[in-house]
Amino acid sequence: MRTYLKRSLAILTVCLLVLTLTAGCAPKPAAETPKEPAPAADKPFAGKTLNVIYMAQAGYQPPVFEARIKEFEDKTGAKVNLTFVKYDEQHEKIVTSAAAPTATYDVISLDLIWTAEFAEKGFVLPLDDRIAKDIKKDDIAPAIWSAFEYNGKTWAMPFLANFQLFFYNTELLEKAGYKEPPKTMEELEEMMTAMKKKGIVKYPWSDSWNQKEGLVCEYVWLTGAYGGDTFDAQGRPSFNQGAGVKALETMVRWLDKGLADPNSLVQDEPMAKDAFISGNCAFNSNWTFQYGLMNDPANSKVVGKAKMGLLPVAKDVFKAGSYETASVSGFQGMAVMANTKEPDLAWELVKWMTAPEFQAQHLEEMPVWTSVQQDPATLAKDPVMDVKSKEIAAVHHRPKVANYPEVSSIMQKYIHLALEKKMAPQAALDQAVKEIEALQ
Amino acid sequence: MVGLETSIRRKERPVLLGREPPAGRLAWRLVSPTLLVVFLVSLLPLVLAFALSFTEAHVVRGGIAWRFIGLENYRYYLGNRAFWESLRVTAFFTVVSLAVELVLGIGMALILNQPFFGRGLVRALILIPWALPTVVNARMWAWIYDGHAYGALNGLLLALGWIKEPLVWLSTAVPGAHVPVLGPFLKWVGDSTALNMILIGDTWKVTPLVALLVLAGLQTIPREYYEAARVDGATVWQQFRLITLPLLKPVILVVLVLRTMELFRVFDILYIIMANTIKVLSIYTFEEGIVFGHLGRGSALSFLVGLVILLLAFVYIKLLYSEEVR
Predict the structure, then answer these.
(1) B chain contacts of residue A412, beta-carbon cutoff 8 Å
(2) Which residues in chain B are contacts of A265 at CB distance < 8 A?
(3) Please, which residues have CB within 8 angstroms of residue B257's CB and are 6 or more apart in sequence?
(4) What's the pTM value of the predicted model, to 2 decimals?
């Protein structure tokens, strides 16, 4: 019996060893790189391998991304392994890769809400020196750069630019006797009140205010519309004073007056889009994706009536030319993992993928480069580029803090409690700030 | 298979000739792959998670940083209002769902146990909801409950003229908040219109399974009992209460244990429709452990949930089996 036990223990150990070894090998397909001829001078990275993770969801679609990668392989001689995942799966996979001694992924797409976390924990490399050397920094708006800056360093190269815009239904607007969309929050509220009174539309405003990340985004641009930010420059919550309170009070007031659809409390962004394209509401704020869908006759009832414009700001912060609008950012950059073995090659890939000539060819996404946005060729192809360029320069970011998911969860909870009228706006925001401060 | 055959042949050999391997040896050899898998994917993570639950742990570059803090995580939750709120709303969801499922399930089984035309077809058809993936079911109910006029339920009620304007079915308002006693109680357990509506969606999916299990139980009850009861002049209700129900007890026990465990861990339908709004224990655990990255705290919380389920199972078995024996 003894020997038997010993033997089975030995078998078990061997099995375990084999399993861990094979598991450890899996993410390294580099082992069987075919022997290439001696690296030519113009292919400095021949024989090297890079692993890249990217999302197959919003943004440049996989075939476009793959084609661009293929060109990179041909140019540099390097081999690139691409992994496409859903947006929601990225964070977990990147964190797991960071925990490994050698990176599973060398290049990642970095959502701006992870900037602080990844920087603070040292998951990704600062790119300032490389940017200074290789990139025309002033060709990208400071509002975009700042999304990826933390502790005075830049942690990712801007790649995808998503942000919110203002959408309005011209037919309903005209019925109420207005020719132009509102420029200020006050005008907006006045128009909505008029529409409601005349019975043109039951709820003029329908938005994505369910208890999710989207609620924080809406609240961030609304706080911006009253001239403020949710967090101060040091990353301390400041939304329980001034603009933040006005923003939440506005949301609650719109609900009270029946200007905002009570469904907003249970809608996410796609559902808010549905409400808008069904012609059931006059205004909403949403991400860039709504533009394409509202002009699609297969699904939309508002083709030709719906327009996209600048989000309004409050009268007393409105300054023509400098503070006409406020939005919220949903940017993604490309970053290099700190535990990569090929930082130079990784940077080459980042440069290649984020290059202005690539973005100029693919205007289905908003280019981050000012020169591309203002290029006559771009403007000729995209009639709303002008509006988008103005809006993107006016984005406000969500707080840049290392424990962002927890902070966001607290904000979602208390903002939603105020919208449900279970708490007064000021009290809810005070409590949220108190709980966020208790986290640190 | 080959091993089994040889062993059978070996057994036939005269004992005097060969060395007979110990009886357990083959068995061990056969179950060892299973044991290995169970060890690797179930036991090992369980032990690691248990160890983690006594630490403050998070992911850092190149690994996991942890610090032993004893029972601090457990103490954190037991003194945390959010944990008790989460426990209450989970318990409420479990109890109400169970009651509805059992009553409807037994009712359906009783009907399906009667002979009628097309019974076989109906028995097969009722399983369709249960065969739906939970995610599909959740998405479907989200569309049904959409608060606009184009939501299916609102559309139906509007067409019938039962309501004048679309209702917000997934509202987080407490139903009957102004009713004395009931209102404050529902608020205390964390009930909401949304929770009740989702409960209906979940019950719709699972009741057929309960019905099927109960039906299997019903078919083991000999017809003679009922005939004898009828001869003695027992009413239908008496037959149900004195024959059917007591003999169904073992099946009901199985349903109770199975469903309590599943309901207590409910995650998908609530998460898909309401994201993190209705914080039942599983959603709370997922948020703490995975979203916020508190690996230690999340582990402690999942062990607390496991403990509650274990206690419940223990109580059920004690209650129902003791009567069974008697």
Answers:
(1) 276
(2) 168, 171-172
(3) B313, B316, B317
(4) 0.84
